[in-house]
Specification:
elongated; Serine Threonine Protein Phosphatase 5, Tetratricopeptide repeat; mainly alpha; about 450 residues; 21 helices
Length: about 450
């Protein structure tokens, strides 16, 4: 969205032919950008309800927002010029005083760039005057990410320098070209400039290669972040998830308890520790974690879903149903909750209510489990074509779904389509090789084929 504004500034104040170009010609050059930008903004407001998510990641006052923005300018400029100790997640600490060294550094940077801008703008030399647009570019593309109130959890992040660095590159290029011109009659100085450029280029290239190693895998990345930013407990939460998926529950627990030690009300860690306790069959401890999370944020559907699953593991179907219905009320499009509630209703002898949940599940997100149950319900009411359609829909989403294969096998077997039935049973046995009913059906079909053979 900064591009239309920058194009407007360029056409009216910086372009070489701006004096000879009419306003309508200038408008024709950048007008389409504004049209696309406005359409995009209206699209966001219509479908998202706002320009940006309403979630507040940091509780900052308006003075703190302004002071932090000034401090962030200095931080970005310094990181652009001196890219050491690069980190994928920086812990944000808002600036609360105008005498904060970070704020003073930001003011110094802003003053220096303002002086540089005025010097370039007043120059009669076209290339030098154009450098002022590089400064405008830098600030215009950086400004949207200086507001700590809504920019996101990671307030300062290196990727926000991608667009601003274009303006900085123009300034560096201009400076290098000027130095090169001034040393036209001094070969020794030109050789020194070339050598300096090669050394700097080599250092930056080496920094890129070294930095790339941090992204070898998630574990390396998170560990590297924590080395540079030990207070980044949210990254520690993510590292615990890596250990969880690797099956190292002890390390996962250690990471998540470390998060709770820094923030006892961290929703992610509470839910993660609840899941870990449930996997260890420590259901009372799991229930306590999920209950704590729910008290902190009653509208968090994930905590209700986790608690409902825990009650199912404990055999407490009544409380489980209450939690699952809460999830469905909070997030009607959550197919996981719909499926779990449907299974519970089916197990407790309420097939019509269960079918209603599975139909809602596939409407929100087509999934094999819901289609399997719908196919079974249609088989029970002798709606064979509808059942076949449901099983095929399940297989289109998950071709290894043994239940759908067996369901189609039963339909084809009843219809006397022996070869097709045998094919479906065999496909289902790949994923479920010990299914007694399918094995018996295969033996029967093979005997029928043998008797029918001449």
């Amino acid at each position: 969205m900064t591009l239309p504004a920058l194009a407007t500034v360029y056409e009216h104040f910086c372009r070489a032919d701006r004096s000879e170009t009419s306003t309508s010609q200038k408008l024709a050059r950048y007008g389409v950008l504004w049209l696309i930008g406005v359409a995009y903004m209206l699209f966001r407001i219509h479908f998202l309800g706002a320009l940006a998510p309403a979630e507040k990641f940091h509780q900052v006052t308006r003075p703190q927002i302004v002071l932090s923005a000034i401090a962030l300018v200095a931080q970005y400029v310094w990181k652009l010029l001196w890219p050491v100790r690069l980190c994928a997640f920086y812990v944000f600490h808002p600036s609360t005083s105008a005498f904060d060294p970070r704020v003073l550094a930001g003011l110094l940077v802003l003053l220096s760039l303002a002086v540089l801008f005025l010097g370039c703008w007043r120059s009669r030399e076209r290339s030098v005057r154009f450098a002022s647009f590089g400064i405008v570019w830098f600030f215009a593309t950086l400004a949207p990410v200086l507001n700590a109130h809504w920019v996101g959890l990671n307030v300062f992040t290196e990727r926000y320098l991608y667009l601003p660095s274009v303006g900085a590159a123009w300034l560096v290029g201009l400076g290098a070209s000027k130095l090169w011109s001034r040393t036209a009659t001094r070969p020794a100085q030109r050789r020194a400039l070339v050598l300096t450029g090669l050394v700097l280029g080599g250092l930056y290239a080496a920094r890129i290669v070294i930095r790339d190693r941090d992204w070898e895998n998630d574990k390396v990345l998170y560990a590297r972040i924590l080395d540079l930013s030990p207070d980044a407990y949210r990254v520690q939460d993510a590292l615990g998830a890596v250990y969880w998926h690797e099956g190292d529950l002890d390390k996962a627990e250690s990471a998540w308890r470390g998060v709770l030690a820094r923030d006892p009300n961290d929703m992610g860690a509470l839910n993660d520790l609840g899941l870990l306790a449930r996997q260890r069959h420590q259901y009372a401890e799991a229930e306590a974690f999920f209950q704590h999370a729910m008290k902190l944020q009653p509208s968090a559907a994930e905590s209700h879903l986790n608690l409902g699953d825990t009650y199912l593991k404990m055999g407490r179907r009544g409380p489980a149903e209450l939690q699952l219905r809460t999830v469905v009320a909070l997030t009607p499009l959550d197919s996981r909750a719909r499926n779990r509630l449907g299974q519970l209703l089916f197990d407790t002898g309420r097939p019509l209510e269960a079918e209603e949940q599975f139909r809602a599940s596939v409407q929100s997100r087509p999934n094999a489990l819901a289609y399997d149950f719908l196919g079974m319900f249609n088989i029970r009411r002798d709606a064979v074509p509808e059942a076949a359609r449901d099983f095929r829909a399940a297989l289109s989403l998950e071709d290894s779904d043994s239940y759908a294969h067996f369901g189609l096998g039963d339909i084809y077997k009843t219809a006397g389509r022996t070869a097709e039935a045998l094919s479906q049973y065999q496909a289902g046995l790949v994923a479920d090789p010990t299914n007694a009913q399918a094995l018996a059906a295969v033996r029967e079909l093979r005997r029928q084929s043998a008797r029918a053979a001449p």
